[in-house]
Design brief:
Shape: globular
Strand content: 5-15%
Helix content: 25-40%
Number of helices: 11
Structural class: alpha/beta
Distance between the termini: 30 Å
Radius of gyration: 20 Å
Strand order of the largest sheet: 3-2-1-7-8
Largest sheet: 5 strands, parallel
Order of helices and strands: HHEHHHHEHEEEHHEHEHE
């Protein structure tokens, strides 16, 4: 059943198959390995009581609003920000680009696009994991009323989901901040290559927002194209830290929360208010909430 599938594939964010019980369709000796363990933090083994609680929570729900965070994509090879020992905040002193800094400082834009240029070939090649694909199956049955993701990696779309609200936007589009011009990120990569023929993309450790770490020397001579229509600033269609989620997007999710009979969070610490506001709304409306996550 689909419940079996969700429990089996998401595996409560562990890298073990669910123990052989009535909810499990396979053998522990045939357990599949995760696509990538490098960014999955240490965790305890799944307990039977956790499985039973999740099964009970989901069994009678027919109109679930799902919120996913960076934790759902770690097994695809993309690190998150806050995982203990393996997240960006634990492994680097670098922090995500702030919206105000990006807009006001040409050197910040130069640094961002140079790092993103190097990281893009690898970032764009990441594939969805079993959790993404399982949720796409749930959408096909109509059990999910809305899938809301905090991620900008488009892995839900790659897995086949279509009714997705990308709360923080997507890295797959680049838009002008002064006019209506926009273009696919893949096409913008060609423009960056033409402007920087001596800068060769290479394999490097990727960061949660799709860029890599570079030295000042590597960034110094990188050229960033301006908008070909108005000369404005080109920025990924992403809500940077310090910016706000567009109000129409927030209101769309709020309406869906009101229409849902439950809210399920997968792979998010809910530290960011952009998603936590919907938890508050569900609590106020007495809508049941379930959370699958490693850590607090």
């Amino acid at each position: 059943s689909l419940l079996d599938s969700l429990l089996q594939e998401i595996r409560l964010k562990t890298c073990r198959m669910i123990p052989a019980r009535s909810l499990y369709l396979g053998s522990s000796t045939n357990a599949r390995k995760c696509a990538s363990l490098a960014f999955v933090p240490k965790h305890r083994e799944t307990r039977d009581e956790d499985i039973e609680k999740l099964s009970e929570f989901l069994s009678k729900k027919k109109n679930i609003l799902l919120i996913t965070g960076a934790g759902i994509s770690t097994e695809s090879g993309i690190p998150d920000y806050r995982s203990e020992g393996v997240g960006l905040y634990a492994t680097s002193t670098k922090r995500p680009t702030q919206h105000k800094v990006f807009m006001e400082r040409p050197m910040a834009r130069q640094s961002y696009w140079a790092r993103n240029f190097i990281g893009w070939p690898r970032w764009s090649s990441f594939e969805p994991n079993e959790s993404h694909r399982t949720l796409a199956k749930w959408e096909d049955t109509g059990k999910i009323s809305q899938l809301v993701t905090q991620n900008v990696d488009q892995l839900h779309y790659k897995a086949g989901s279509r009714n997705v609200v990308e709360l923080h936007g997507t890295n797959s589009i680049v838009k002008c901040m002064s006019c209506c011009y926009y273009l696919p990120r893949m096409q913008f990569q060609r423009h960056l290559e033409e402007a920087n023929p001596t800068m060769i993309p290479r394999v490097a450790d990727i960061r949660p927002d799709g860029d890599v770490e570079l030295t000042e020397q590597e960034v110094r001579h990188f050229k960033v194209p301006s908008c070909p229509k108005c000369g404005g600033i080109l920025k990924p269609f992403v809500v940077f830290f310090g910016d706000n989620v567009p109000r129409p997007r927030v209101e769309q999710v709020r309406r869906k929360v009101n229409e849902s009979d439950s809210l399920l969070v997968i792979g998010s610490s809910l530290h960011v208010f952009s998603a936590f506001r919907f938890i508050n709304q569900a609590v106020e409306n007495k809508i049941p909430i379930g959370i699958i996550n490693i850590g607090p």
